[in-house]
Please model this.
Amino acid sequence: LAAGPPQPVAWLAPAIRRVAQRRDPRLAAELVLELLPAQALAVEGSLRYVARIAELGSYEVSLTSGRGSVRELAGGTPSEHPELVLEGPAAAFAEVAGGGAKLSSWRPPAGLRVRGRRRHVRRLFAARRAPLVLAELQLAEVTVWPGLLLLALAEAIDPAWTAEHSFTVAFAIEGQQSAVLRVQALRGRPLAVTRARSTDAPGRGDCEPDLSPQTVVRCSERGFARMLSGVELGGETIALQGDREPLQTLLAWTDEVQGVRRFGA
Model:
């Protein structure tokens, strides 16, 4: 079903921090890195800065004409003098990547060290005042690995919502990083997100009993991203195998977190 215009909700930055604190700080850092190019949609003009993320290393971020790019810096040194340098752990980059920054002043979030002219700092953080909407990733042609999006959403979903539910949905995703990802709801616990071994196939009897999926969704990386963000599929095919209800429940939770309203919902 197509989605109506989302009401932006500042869910992504808190979710990034919780992934860093409760799950895996390196995965939180990878999510930050993959989200940074989307800043190009909001930053006025061009901006080039260095992001030194403690868990990953140093990267140059270039934002211009509505498009962004990230490249790893060999030796940690940019070829030209950057306009800004941002340094800190993944959790400190949460608002830089996910938006929703509260800017009563130009000061950056706690734990994030910033070097550069104040006007450039203001430009960057003003662009991140509004929460990032996942649908915007399609406009910016930014691809985020599905497992990272699922981890963030799993941290954003209130475990109380799962109190009356027990199911596993498997996403068999084809793309540059093909994978089988399982999302498990288990009666009041936080959602679990796991990646199947490459030898596993969804629905096979050799899977652990509590991870045998009631629902298998087969799609491309692009189709997955569009389905999760609630936009039109744009020609992508979503193949469903098994019980439809667990997927509908999971999407209802992710819609609630994001402030997405699907037509007919």
The radius of gyration is 19 Å. The helical segments are 12-23, 25-35, 94-98, 118-127, 134-139, 146-156, 221-229, 245-258. The first helix runs from residue 12 to 23.
